[in-house]
């Protein structure tokens, strides 16, 4: 009986290791990938010194206090991916969601101003997407789950003078951890017995935000932004207590520790100038500390202690070895006032180079990612007032991005690679966004 049970349990345990041996890895959020609102997307995410409105919490927490009016923003974005992996189109979900936010500046004296800001991104498909994929199955680790989660950021900013502002804030994310999932199975008094209990908690995690905005001259601005690392950690312990009197008694334990939606430490610096009253040129550099990340493939351990040999089944994976990356970006905005400055029309363009932090794979894990070239464009229309029923400005913005994934081929260090010819990836991503901003 025990020999037969051993033959049945060991393949099951091995299958669990392969099936649970991965989870979505190294995912940041949509603000890093393409920007939250339409204006940011149209300028290639080079707006760290130009976000004196409801976008301040995710762009530069210090910018809110520099605003002259209360602003409320609402939008919608849609992105379609055409990604090719080993000659086949990868089934990556479209990225859809609603950005919403507000910024409320206030005067604390003749020269001192402060602001409270909040911005959120709400995917319209689900709040957060967690999936388990076999370790050997190739997938685009920064694009399959990365944009599919709620983003909530808040900030407080203070401008003691007109030329300087400082801001602090936090971005929020909930963990998924379990105090235990227990199964009791067996035979008692000749009757089959089965019980299950689940104890899960969702603790909230915070990552700090900090920003600085300087305006030494009316046509010159400098900005600095820092965001701490944050992730959705998954921790589950599954215990199956087996008690069949006279045949087998013991435990089968599965322990899963994984990291999802990882957002790295990020430092960004930027500058913008107005070489002409109608033209703004902005540039920035973002430094992302991916080398601190670990957990690309989760730690999964299975202990089968039923008096059988071997009692432990465990898989070991090579370290992730992700690398830090530097991403430069450039943006332009040309605006023209019309109708005695009652209307303003803006045209925008931008470029981003986003190198991949994922190293070439050498073992069984098949984490795929490519360097990206992002071309951006956008339009904006602002009305100073809408007749008499709404005597305040309204802005409508459109943003477009085209992401080109540079072709990449990796030949792994395996005696027999299940993906013959290695890993070959390329593709593109098209993103459209619409935003409406109300000012008071």
SSE map:
Layout lengths: L1 H19 L9 H4 L4 H5 L13 H4 L11 E15 L2 E2 L5 E13 L5 E11 L15 E2 L10 E11 L2 E11 L1 E13 L2 E11 L2 E14 L2 E8 L2 E15 L3 E16 L2 E11 L2 E10 L10 E7 L6 E3 L10 E14 L4 E12 L12 E2 L3 E12 L10 E17 L12 E17 L1
Parallel strand pairs: 5-20, 8-12
Antiparallel strand pairs: 1-2, 1-3, 1-23, 3-4, 4-6, 6-7, 7-10, 8-9, 10-11, 11-14, 12-13, 13-16, 14-15, 15-18, 16-17, 18-19, 19-21, 21-22, 22-23
Mean pLDDT: 81
The fold-level CATH name is: Porin
- How many strand units? 23
How many separate structural domains? 1
Q: What is the helical fraction, as a range of percent?
A: under 10%
Question: By helix and strand content, what is the structural category?
Answer: mainly beta
How widely separated are the two ends?
A: 78 Å
CATH class: Mainly Beta
Q: For the largest beta sheet, what order do the strands appear in spatially?
A: 1-3-4-6-7-10-11-14-15-18-19-21-22-23
Low-confidence stretches: 1-27
Strand content: over 45%
The Cα radius of gyration reads 26 Å
Please outline the major beta sheet. 14 strands, antiparallel, barrel
The number of helices is 4
* Element-by-element helix/strand order: HHHHEEEEEEEEEEEEEEEEEEEEEEE
Overall morphology: globular
Relevant CATH superfamily: Outer membrane protein transport protein (OMPP1/FadL/TodX)
CATH architecture label name: Beta Barrel
């Amino acid at each position: 009986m025990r020999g037969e049970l051993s033959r049945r349990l060991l393949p099951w345990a091995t299958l669990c290791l392969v099936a649970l041996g991965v989870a979505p890895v190294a995912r940041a959020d949509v603000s890093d990938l393409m920007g939250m609102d339409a204006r940011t997307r149209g300028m290639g995410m080079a707006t760290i010194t130009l976000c004196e409105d409801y976008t301040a919490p995710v762009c530069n927490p210090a910018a809110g206090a520099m605003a002259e009016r209360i602003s409320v923003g609402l939008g919608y974005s849609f992105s379609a991916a055409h990604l090719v992996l080993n000659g086949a189109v990868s089934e990556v979900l479209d990225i859809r969601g609603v950005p919403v936010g507000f910024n409320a500046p206030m005067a604390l004296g003749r020269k001192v101003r402060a602001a409270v800001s909040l911005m959120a991104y709400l995917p319209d498909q689900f709040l957060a997407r967690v999936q388990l994929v076999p370790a050997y199955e190739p997938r685009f680790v920064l694009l399959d789950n990365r944009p599919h989660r709620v983003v909530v950021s808040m900030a407080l900013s203070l401008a003691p003078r007109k030329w300087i502002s400082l801001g602090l804030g936090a971005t929020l994310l909930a963990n998924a951890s379990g105090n235990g999932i227990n199964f009791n199975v067996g035979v008692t008094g000749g009757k089959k017995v089965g019980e299950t209990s689940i104890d899960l908690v969702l603790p909230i995690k915070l990552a700090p935000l900090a920003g600085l905005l300087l305006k030494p001259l009316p046509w010159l601005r400098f900005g600095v932004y820092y965001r701490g690392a944050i992730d959705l950690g998954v921790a589950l312990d599954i215990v199956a207590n087996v008690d069949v009197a006279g045949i087998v008694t013991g435990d089968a334990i599965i322990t899963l520790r994984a990291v999802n939606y990882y957002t790295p430490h990020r430092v960004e610096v930027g500058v913008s100038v107005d070489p002409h009253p109608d033209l703004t040129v902005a540039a920035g550099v973002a430094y992302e500390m991916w080398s601190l990340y670990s957990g690309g493939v989760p730690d999964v351990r299975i202990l089968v202690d039923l008096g059988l040999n071997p009692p432990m089944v465990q898989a070991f994976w090579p370290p992730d070895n992700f690398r830090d990356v530097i991403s430069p970006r450039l943006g332009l905005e040309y605006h023209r006032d019309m109708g005695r400055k009652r209307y303003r029309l803006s045209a925008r363009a931008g470029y981003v180079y986003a190198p991949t932090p994922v190293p070439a794979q050498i073992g069984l894990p098949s984490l795929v990612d490519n360097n990206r070239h992002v071309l951006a464009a956008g339009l904006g229309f602002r009305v100073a007032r809408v007749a008499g029923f709404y005597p305040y400005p309204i802005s409508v913005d459109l943003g477009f991005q085209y992401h080109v994934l540079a072709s990449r081929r990796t030949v792994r260090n395996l005696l027999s690679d299940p993906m013959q010819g290695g890993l070959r990836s390329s593709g593109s991503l098209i993103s459209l966004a619409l935003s409406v901003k109300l000012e008071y």
